[in-house]
Amino acid sequence: MRQRLLMLCCLLGVCPLAPAQQEDYSQVQITSTPLAANLYLLEGAGGNIAACVGPDGALLVDDEFAPLADKIRAALKNLGADKPVRFVINTHYHFDHTGGNLAFAQSGAVLVAHDNLRTRLERGGTVGNGGSISMQVQPSPAGALPMVTYANELTVHLNGVEVRVHHYPRAHTDGDSVVFFPAANVVHMGDIFVRYGFPFIDINGGGDVRGMIAACVDVIRTMRPGARVVPGHGAVASLDDLREYVQMLEDTSALVQKALKAGQTLERMKKDKILGAWSARYSPAKGFIDTDAFTDSLYNSLIPPPPRAVGAGH
Ligand SMILES: [Zn+2]
Hints:
alpha/beta
């Protein structure tokens, strides 16, 4: 499975979960695209980076993989950002978004994230959708752990703007941050919103499709018209793109919910291809989550927890 996953990812060039040691990063180039004044999208390998640059130094949202840290610094320099990276905000704990943590912390950046992200990085564990996708991750070294963590929200004041960091419970994981740049009308959503097809939902990491939907709906409500939405992976999107994605999440969830109510098993749902209408658009050619894997994610989000055994401890 792991091989298949890596192969698929790399074929598609998205590599959302490919661990650093198995990749050759020497050929990766970091490209930058302006999002607003002093705000850029950086793309290399792994998750999208938003970079706010200016006289106070740089703030990054996510930091891809460790071997790319120097290339990211060089890209910032090319943008005229000659001050060091002061803050890195992690949107979630997956290693294609946090791989550069140690390198940036060692050069003086303060790592910022949700409380649960720190715990998951510290402990390691299994990333997975409760079904076909499962991958072990090792505990992170102490230096890669966020020094500043928060429970609900946090604001960073830098380069004359506010950067608002907001936690949405149980979405892609249980430690997700969405990062708003209100003055620029830009938001970075981490992997709550991706554009490689059906999304990965880390059920083992506390993710749940209902939390993903709630987060997206709140972002749509919060942003002003014309907003630019940075997904965890893929091209910058509009609010209409995000609305379309929410529609897919809601409709596919409703299909699985209906099948659950009718007493169908997961195997039966897959066999009957109940997500059929959505598959052509979102799977498999466009992403590493095929229809069956996404059905796993939805099923494991929506199935009621088993009742507690009578007499079981508390
Ligand atoms: Zn992720």
